[in-house]
Amino acid sequence: MSSLNYAAPTTVDEAVKLLAGASGLAKVLSGGTDLLVQLRAGRLKPDLIVDTKKIPGIIGIRKGSDGGFVIGAATPGAEVEANAELNAAWPGLVEALDLIGSTQVQGRCSLAGNLCNASPAADSVPALYAAGAIAVVVGSKGRREVPVEQIPTGPGRTSLAKDEFILEFKLPPRGPRSADAYLRFIPRTEMDIAVVGCGINVTLDEKGVCTAARVALGAVSPTVIMVPEAAQILVGHTLDADTLAKLDAAAQAAAKPITDKRGTVEYRKKIAGVLARRVAAIAFDRAQGKTNGKAH
Amino acid sequence: MNYVASDLKVVGTRPIRPDGVDKVTGRAVFAADTRAAGMLWGKIKRSPHAHARILSIDTSKAMALPGVKAVVTAADFPDIPSEEAFVGEGPMNFRDLALNVMARSKALYEGHAVAAVAATTQEIADRALELIDVQYEVLPFVIDVEAAMAPDAPVLHDDLFTAGVTPKPEKPSNIAKVVTFKKGDVEAGFKDAEVVVEGRYTTQPVHQAYIEPHACLASYQPDGQVTIHASSQGHFMVRAYTAKLLGMDMANIRVNPAEIGGGFGGKTLIYLEPVAVALSKKAGRPVKIQMTREEVFRGSGPTSGAWVEVKIGAKKDGTIVAAQQVLKFQAGAFPGSPIGPGCMCGFAMYDLPNVDVVGYDVVSNRPKVAAYRAPGAPITSFAVESAMDELARKLGMDPLALREKNAAKNGTKTHYGPVHQNIGFTAVLDAVKAHPHWKTPVKEGQGRGLAVGFWFNIGGESTATVHVNEDGSVTVATGSPDIGGSRASMGMMVAEVLGIDVARVKATVADTASIGFTHLTGGSRVTFATGMAATQAAEKVVDDLKKRAAATWEIPVEAVEWKDGKAYPAGSNAGAFEPLDLAALALKAARTGGPIVAEVSVNAQGAGAGFGAHICDVTVDKETGHVTIERYTAIQDVGRAIHPSYVEGQIQGGAAQGIGWALNEEYIYNTKGQMENPGFLDYRVPVASDVPMIEAVLVEVPNPRHPFGVRGVGEVPIVPPMAAIANAIKSATGVRMPNLPMSPPKVRAALDAAG
What we know:
The structure holds two protein chains of two kinds. Helices cover 33% and strands 23% of the residues of chain A. Chain A is an alpha+beta fold. Chain A has a domain at 179-287: Enolase-like, domain 1 (2-Layer Sandwich). By secondary structure, chain B is of the alpha+beta class. Chain B has three domains: 5-27 and 459-604, Aldehyde Oxidoreductase, domain 4 (2-Layer Sandwich), CATH 3.30.365; 34-141 and 211-262 and 267-299, Alpha-Beta Complex (Aldehyde Oxidoreductase, domain 3); 306-457 and 608-754, Aldehyde Oxidoreductase, domain 4. Helix content of chain B is 28%, strand content 24%. The longest helix of chain B is centred in the last third of the chain and has 28 residues, at 526-553.
């Protein structure tokens, strides 16, 4: 019969050593809301599971020296959602993470798990991309900082080495008139996987003209993608009808989805355009202080 | 006797449900919770192919695996002849069920059982399944109903010749049966019509989606006695099928009914029990089998998907003069779709002079269908009620007025034969008209739909025993598994008759060795038929108690009356005695004739038909195609609600399942005929936030054939939702959605196509 080893190291070094020394498949466990499901379904048969939650600092939210937020990799969704300051600065990222699973799942699910599971439909990932988050990665060769969009390389695949894992995420310092938003489309109202997801992060000037933008789309490509063409359309403009139409077209053009049980190519492209418009509208409103609420 | 509404003290109240605490605290014992000493785990190997000839099965490697105690294949079961089954719900054949439980020469759908193992752990059993080597010759397959009817379709059964056509066809086909119903002269009717609507509608197979997967624990003893713990809608049904499929005497099988986690018709047949018994016999130890959710989807029955054509002709004043329907129902791998009820229920709400209905029962390479809440009626009604909405629009007539104009009444002869008696359809339509939802103008941007539905309900065989315990408390035992609150309603009816507090009555479900035969829980029959048996048994107890009081007082029994749980002398002439209550009589039972017990078995006739009308308001997101149910009202004639909260719950549950059927539920097959979405993530039943508060409105037109006026209530509420929602979408967008599910991609595509 097969066996499975479990370890819960209390230091980064110990964790890295365990991963480096593993003989077969080794998996990093944060909240486990994907990993445990995959184990139960028999899709994964790891020899070693390294639970990172006992490593100091891997759960929690703090401010970095540059004034930007630092979010521990395994911080559960519920804790992120409960942080008022983070909500005010990054409402889009918070609402994206909050969409994952049920109340029970929110007690465990994490940004690192969502990113490293590398599903193109992951909800928090387009928001992380749009935010310009940096992943702090640790491994045998030390510590490196990687833009989050360089982590997933394909469905279920990442650029992390066998002995590497994410320790925390750094968000850039927040200037005035900046806001983000995330929407996904699902056939139900909750407990579902995104047919398309879209995260947008903008900075506006005093007149409401966009000076910086990042646009990311989920579930329309093998990984979540950045859509710089869509961001370019926003920069230099207010959200007038012409800009919205161009944004819609750019999102549709960038979307390269497949037809599967969750949606068709044709439908996903249309929805990518619809969501880009709706998310941009929420982000612009938030940046102008017009709304402070959630997109959902 | 029939009870008068104004006299009722218990019936119609809302006591706390007797099974509630156990269920919310997790203590209720479901079949999967049962254990036995030395128990083995059974697992089933299933075909990965939609259609394949089984060339060989080599079980030697699996048997050699340490911990494996038994392996069975079809060779371990008797090859029984074709025989119409006398159990279950809907048409069933013992041989078909045997072949469904374990494939013999062919696997007929992906998920079809081909072998099973019993091992000391689940892990070993899983490993053993991988070691069973099945050699297949993969055959062409067919999934969809129209494709299965095509002349060049792959044929599932070489011995299936269409029944119901003359002369008998020369060649086998996938069309198992043709059903026809005719009334009047439909051609002449259409000639008379001034307005005609025609439409073609399709529905998808949908699973009953009970929360509890199938499970059983079986123990075969060396003396040939078998004990089974099973989750089912009828433990007598489990006993009969298991006995037939294994060639055993029923007396040697005792089935204990476990608490059931939902059935909705899907547990009116069996999948696991004969396999568990066969494994137990071989291994000499008890065997438990429980399905995973994936197995439930791949291996157990949904209801039919269907293709339905409807044509209705009317006069300009709305009087319908002709109605026609062609229905093609998928039966899955074996004959037995609910095509009969499908043909009966579509037009049964209306008083129509000329009707012509033709139905086809069609096999294809998907799991054998099982009953699902008003089997067939939701499918046929989706088509008819959509067409009625189109007719109202074409006539420029209010959709409620069109239904009122043509509504079936007492004395209306249905196209399938029976004459409606004591029905409350008009009262339901009156309640629609009077309801604030109907009278409130539709909100800006929303659309409103109306649809009605019918289910005939059934009665049948039931047994109930009422025991008065030594302290005057009461036990009522029946043979009906409780899937909709029947323990509560049995206790309440008995308490009403005895004139005592319902808290002193406990209802239980007795096993097959402890109570007389009782047909399964289905067809909305239990509160009606088993309730009739329980009521009559309680009345026999009252007669007995009166005799005992009379003997105690030494007066004639006619001089004793029973009131509020006590025997009284009937008037001053009878003598002056202190009343004797149940506890006093129970205490002295030994001296007045022994145990106070009554058992009644009935074959209940006169189940009152049920009618419902649903009103639904929706918002359609025109960019995404997402439909939001904003407001939902379900009005139904329930005869008399014994426990109104359960009745409302039945109505809300039926409507919620209908909403899922309408909006998102479907089987997604890949190009190999394998199901792609065998789980609740991608087989989308509604979640709580998808469904608004459903207002259930109880209309009570008592059924005179039941002592309390009961008519079945559990099935009607799933009949109207699909058309009510489709009609609301039409009203919101101008677009008719004839194909289920009305999922976001399909709604968006329809909106795009309409410009």
